[in-house]
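> Could you send the Protein zer-1 homolog prediction when you get a chance?

Sure thing. Input:
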Amino acid sequence: SLKMACDSPESLMTLCTDYCLRNLEGTLCYLLDNETLRLHPDIFLPSEICDKLVNEYVELVKTDSIFEPHESFFTLFSDPRSTRLARIHLREHIVQDQDLEAIRKQDLIELYLTNCEKLTAKSLQTLVSFSHTLISLSLFGCCNIFYEEENPGGCEDDCLVNPTRQVLVKDFTFEGFSRLRFLNLGRLIEGVNVETLLRPLASLAALDLSGIQLNDVGFLTQWKDSLVSLVLYNMDLSEEHIQVIAQLRKLRHLDISRDHLSSYYKFKLTRRVLNLFVENLVNLTSLDISGHTMLENCSIPSMEEKMGQTSIEPAKSSIAPFRGLKRPLQFLGLFETSLCRLTHIPAYKVSGDKNEEQVLNAIEAYTEHRPEITSRAINLLFDIARIERCSQLLRALQLVITALKCHKDDKNIQVTGSAALFYLTNSEYRMEQSVKLRRQVIQVVLNGMESYQEVTVQRNCCLTLCNFSIPEELEFQYRRVNELLLNILNQSRQDESIQRIAVHLCNALVCQVDNDHKEAVGKMGFVMTMLKLIQKKLADKTCDQVMEFSWSALWNITDETPDNCEMFLNYSGMKLFLECLKEFPEKQELHRNMLGLLGNVAEVKELRPQLMTSQFISVFSNLLESKADGIEVSYNACGVLSHIMFDGPEAWGICEPHREEVVKRMWAAIQSWDINSRRNINYRSFEPILRLLPQGISPVSQHWATWALYNLVSVYPDKYCPLLIKEGGIPLLKDMIKMASARQETKEMAR
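Output:
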C-alpha cells in the first residue's frame, strides 16, 4: 500500500489547493490598492477547504523557496460567514500575532502552534476568543508566547537603549476553555506555573509536558479519571513522579523517555518501576522509555529464552517486568537503551537501534518534536543503507524526506538526512521509486543546498543529484538547480570535491537540452563562471577534471546557441584557449573539448571574423596534424577551418598563412583519417554540416562535411541514418554529385 501511495497522483483537492495558493489573485482574491489581498465577495468556502488552504500555505512557505508568502494571507479568513476554519496547524516564523488576531472570530476546534517563536502574549489573549470551541491545542516550542513587552516609559535614554523589556505573563490560565481535552505545552518557558495554568481544565485527556522541569506533579491526579495520554519527555523524574503516574490508571500512552545526551539525570529506571506501571496501568497500549539507563538487569537469562521465532507474546518476553502485560503493547519506545537488542519484545512496534525496522520506527515517532533524537536515528539508517541493503526502501525515503522538510534549519538533520538520501537513491534502488517520489527527493535536496552553505550538506546534495538521470529528471527544476550550482561555483573559497561534482553536474545539465534552456542558463552567467574556473586552474598550472569538465560544459552550452558563443568571445575565451594549449600541450581530452567548442563558434557567421587572425589560423592549421584523441582534435580543427573557408577568399583578411596553403593541409589531414573511426562526439543535428554541401566556393569544406556524414552514418547507422533523412540530407547530396566544382573523391563518397 505504501508503494501505491507513492505512485498515485495527487488528489484533485490537493492540486486545486496548490494552484489556488500559487495564483491567489487569479482565483480566490483580488488586490485592493495594489497591496492588500481581498476575497472576492461571492466566495463561500467550508472548513474542509479553508483548513487545507491554510495548512498547505504554511507547508509551501516552509518548504518551497519559490513560493512568496503574503502579508495579508490570514485576513482572508477573518469572516466566518464566507470562510470557515476548524483545524489548523501553524509553524515557526510563518505566523505572527496579527495572523492569529485576524482569524479570532473563527470557531477553531484544533489549533497546533509548533515552534512559533514570533508569537507573544498578545496571542495568549487571542486564544481566549477560541476558548468556547477549542478541543485540541498545542503550544509546542512557542517560547515567547508567555512574554509581553513592557515599556519602561519616562526616561528618554533608557528608551533608546532598551525600548521594550520582555516581561513574563503570570496571570494567564485556561479559565473558560471548557471543551479543551488535548494540550501540548512542550518546551514551555521556565517560570510559568503549570499547575495554576491548568487547574481550570475540567477533564484533560492528553497532556504533553516535554522538556519542562517540574519537581511536583501531584496536581496531575485531578485528571486521574480522564487522562489517557501523558508525555514527560526529558523531565528528570523522581520516586514521587513515579508514584503519581501509577495513580493515573486510565493511561493508555505514557512517554517518560529522554535524550541521554542532553544533560545529567539522577533518575535510573528499575525493574520495580516497570513492574509498578504494568500492575497499575492496565490499559497501557504504548510506553516509551527510550534513553533511560536501567539500574539493574531486567532481561530474562538467555538460558530461559525459548529459541526459534521471535515472539511478541508477553508470556515469552525477554524483558521480565513485561511478562505481566495482559496483551502485547502497540508501541514500545526503547531507542538508545540496551533492552531493544533482546530477542522477545512484547510489542507490535518497537523503536530502537537494533535493526532497520526499529530505526525506522524511531524516525517516524520522533521527527515532529525531537529533531535531536531523529538525527541520530537517521544516522543509523545511513549506516544500514550504506553497509547492508534497505528492505523498506519507500518507507525509509518518505521518512527522511519528511524529516528534511520538517527541520529545514536543523544542521544535524540536514547533514545526516542528505547523506542518507545519497545511499537511498542510488542505482540499485532505482526500480522501486516512482517519478513522484524522486521529484520529492530532488525538491528537498535543492532546499538543503539553498539553506546551507555548509560544505558537508552541499557535497551530500550534489552527490545525491548525481544519482538522477540528467537532464531529464531535473528538467522540472531546471532554472533553480542551475542557479544553485553556479552559486556554488562562484564562491570565492571552494572545496575541491564539491567543485568537481558541481562542474560535472553543470556539464550534464547543458548536454542534450533544448536551445532555449541553454540560452536561459547562459544568461545566468554560466559562460563567465566556467571561464573563471578555467582561469583559476591555469593560474595554478593544473589540468584536472574541473578544467576538462569546464571546457566540455562550454562546448555543450555553445552548441547551436549563438548568444553563448558570443559571450565566450567577449569574455576573452580565445585568450584562455591559446594559454591552455601552450600550458598543456599533451592533454588530448582538453584539446578535443576546446576545439569542439570553437567548432560551435565557427558555425556562427557573424562571429567568424573574430577568428580571422594570423595567430588563430596558424594554431588551427597546426592542430590539423594532431593525433590527439584519435581523429577528434584534427577533425574539429578542420571543421573550424571549413566554416571559415566557406566565407570565400574575400573574407581571408590575413597575409600569413596563405589560404591555399591551409587548404592543402586540410586535404592532407582528411585523407589521413580512417573512415571507420569510432567517434567521441554526439550530434543532435546535422544542420551546420549540411549547409557546407550546396556551395562551390570551398570544395575542401564540402569534402570535410561529406566525410563527416559518411563516417557517422556508416559507423552508427541506427542513430544517424534517420537524422540525415529527417534533415533533408539526401537531396543535398544528390545535387552535390551533379556539381562541376565538387572534387571526384567527394562525389564518390556522397554517392
